[in-house]
Design brief:
Layout lengths: L3 H14 L2 H4 L7 H24 L25 E7 L6 E6 L5 E10 L5 E9 L10 E7 L7 E3 L6 E7 L10 E6 L11 H32 L10 H5 L6 E9 L4 E7 L6 E6 L15 E3 L11 E5 L7 E2 L6 E9 L8 E6 L1
Parallel strand pairs: 5-6, 13-14
Antiparallel strand pairs: 1-7, 2-5, 2-8, 3-4, 3-7, 9-15, 10-13, 10-16, 11-12, 11-15
Helix pairs in contact: 1-4, 3-4
Length: 352
């Protein structure tokens, strides 16, 4: 019989061993970033426990949030409401609900390899615009390996996670979608928790923490080296490998300011479904959007007379001024969603 004390101690030791990627690096020179690094470890641990333990049964999936206000992965979008579920390519699922009025709403199945090599390969994508809904906005989708008539979300043998993204332009006016998920190839109730099952779930947590942190710290290092106070990551392959939305064109960068400096970022606006810009810390977590203005989108932005938009990072008053939340550096991201053209924003450094 498995020993519960050994299971717990092995989990704690493995988590400690896998934490070095966050604790031993040269990107976090000050106490604020070091404190956020420790919090980042607790957040990744919490996300992984939700993913592998609390919602780890693909035959009886539950919807949970891997990114939200207090748990953030890989340049999370403050305009998004994310939902996730553990799935299997050997099962069939029924997804139903009402589309609400949220402007961008999509479903994706992925092979979640964050605990293996920090990647998340796409195995199926469907956008609500390609889903047949009834007159009231109700929808039904079947997710399976075998192609289905009607609304179908593909699975593959290694599909292991469902990602649902709702993107809001104005959360005070738009009605969120509702979603229900059922595995229709299984019946009955989940089996009771066992020590061996718990051990298996816990064994995945430290690997997820390490794999996820390693992926996005690598991004931060690349952005600092190649996109210093710039947004020009036109090669999208790295972002798609990590589970990015194929509808989105991602322009990542690294911002860093000396005392008294601020950034002015100006861009043309192409024909698109929407756009946004956000500030992040060095761990690629969006800054605290609960209490600060750290992002702007196509609905909230003030536009220049010529139709362009200027976003200001720090500095004096400006309609599109964003708060740095006491940070002097971090990552940043401009998203073009559903755009055919992808302008590169111009960045200027100014002094107060």
């Amino acid at each position: 019989m498995a020993d519960p004390q050994k299971i717990w101690k092995d989990y704690c030791r493995a988590l400690e061993a896998q934490s070095d990627i966050v604790l031993n690096n040269d990107l976090a020179p000050d106490a604020l970033e070091q404190a956020e690094g420790l919090r980042y470890l607790t957040r990744l641990n919490r996300i992984a426990l939700e993913m592998f333990l609390e919602n780890g049964d693909a035959a009886f999936p539950g919807l949970y949030q891997a990114s939200h206000q207090t748990a953030k992965i890989g340049a999370d979008n403050p305009d998004n409401y994310y939902q996730n579920a553990t799935i299997s390519g050997h099962q069939t699922y029924h997804i139903s609900g009402n589309r609400g009025t949220v402007p961008i709403f999509s479903f994706a199945t992925k092979a979640n390899r964050y605990a293996i090599n920090g990647t998340m390969a796409s195995t199926g994508e469907i956008d609500i615009r390609d889903v047949d809904c009834d007159a009231d906005g109700n929808f039904e989708i079947v997710a399976s390996k075998t192609k289905q008539d009607g609304n179908w979300l593909p699975l593959e043998d290694d599909s292991s996670i469902l990602i649902i993204r709702q993107t809001f332009f104005n959360k005070n006016k738009e009605i969120p979608a509702t979603v229900k998920l059922d595995c229709i190839s299984e019946s009955g109730k989940p089996a009771p928790l066992t020590l061996s099952g718990l051990q298996t779930a816990l064994a995945s947590v430290p690997a997820f923490v390490s794999g996820t942190a390693k992926t996005f710290l690598h991004w931060a290092e690349v952005f600092r080296a190649q996109n210093f106070n710039a947004l020009n990551t036109h090669d999208q392959s790295m972002f798609i490998r990590a589970g990015g939305d194929p509808m989105i064109y991602y322009l990542h960068g690294w911002w860093e300011l000396s005392e008294g400096e601020y950034l002015k970022i100006t861009s043309e606006i192409p024909d698109c479904e929407g756009w946004n810009f956000q500030l992040e810390n060095m761990w690629l977590e969006s800054l605290d959007y609960r209490h600060h203005k750290i992002h702007v989108n196509n609905d909230s932005a003030h536009y220049n007379d010529d139709g362009t938009v200027t976003v200001q990072v720090g500095g004096p008053d400006h309609p599109n001024r964003l708060e740095t939340c006491d940070h002097r550096r971090g990552a940043m991201l401009w998203r073009w969603t559903g755009a055919k053209d992808h302008p590169t924003p111009n960045i200027e450094i100014h002094k107060s």
